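QA checklist item 7 of 12: single-chain prediction sanity check.
[x] sequence parsed
[x] length recorded as 132
[x] structure emitted
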Amino acid sequence: SIQKLYRSDFISSKDNPDGTTTVVLNKRGKQQALSYNLDTISLSKAKKWDGKWRMVMFDIPEKYKKVRDAFRFHLKRLEFFEYQKSVFVTPYPCAREIEYLREFWHVKPHVRILLVEQMDNEIHLRQHFKLP
């Protein structure tokens, strides 16, 4: 994860005299960190659909039931279609928003994002999202 942050140019590091390294968010990282508000987060709806479905699946343990329910609530607020109790689908790009939610709720190990090209009930989903 740290290597990914370095590559994304969101963090800077500074070597300390005692041999340790301090890692901090740089200006770009702070802007990214503040770019989402949990109460107003939304997905950008592209004018033309790319034909791919974004599927979010999670298996958050029972001992984190309140967090699981909150995560589910936010997926619904983002207008995901509840495919199953812990499987949600959208036709819109959502990787950054889901990454934010995974980090915010500390559930990254329990949440997967899939990019799906074809589904057997696609007609139903197209109708739900009013897609061609």
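[x] summary fact logged: The radius of gyration is 18 Å.
[ ] second reviewer sign-off
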